[in-house]
Known about the structure:
Organism: Amycolatopsis japonica
Structural class: alpha+beta
Region (Disordered): 1-20
InterPro entries: Bact_HTH_transcr_reg, Chorismate_lyase_/UTRA_dom_sf, Tscrpt_reg_HTH_GntR, UTRA, WH-like_DNA-bd_sf, WH_DNA-bd_sf
Protein name: HTH gntR-type domain-containing protein
CATH superfamily of the largest domain: Chorismate lyase-like
GO molecular function, one term: DNA-binding transcription factor activity
Amino acid sequence: MKARSPRLHPPADGPVRDGIPEHGRIPRYYAVKVDLLDVISELGQGAVLPTERELSERFEVSRATVRQAVGELVLEGRLSRRQGSGTYVAGPKLVQPLALVSYTEGLRRQGIQPGRNLISLERREAGPSLASELEIDPEDDVIHIERVLLADDERVGLESTYLTAARFPTLMDVFDPTQSLYACLRERLGVVFDGAEERVETVLATPREALLIGTNPALPMLLMHRTSWGTDGVPFERVRSLFRGDRLSFETRLGRVE
């Protein structure tokens, strides 16, 4: 493998130029990181990345510098580490639309097979906070569905859904937890989704969440909160979805503001 120094004199544009601080000095790890993007492109999805020693010799930098560059690419989802196996070139991120479509519909549009592992399906008392959002009494019951979300059998998220039990008295009898909840609500119970409010933020997973999703607790996660309502304007669903930031992104289409 021919050794070469990282690009410390970048072209006028591109990823290196974008990362140059105002003082003009490029951190060496960042230059290595950009060169690693070329290596990733050459290797292709699923290929094994050369070892730290090989990369440090190739770019004539320390292994600590290579480790920092590789670590950032892992956090960004360009690379994935497999314990005891090595570091691999990751596939493209999944795209989930910010729209009134289910997780199932969003993945199938990309040719990806969705799946779910059920953690909990239960009736429970709403409590003050959830009751306020669903406009019910704190003592009223909600149906709680918690599931690990899969994409082609890979764990990518954890979803907790709360629905007003009084509005859906037969849901637990007709719902198959391995299938789309929204399809069940529409096709079996005649529910019409008229609107929703959604908020997305970045968080770190709790130890329990990280264990269920099978991810590093230090990996940034995307947390989505959604409240949905029907044609009567009354909210009936509260969803908390936690997604791996290295494997999923959100997409929406914006229209012109008059």
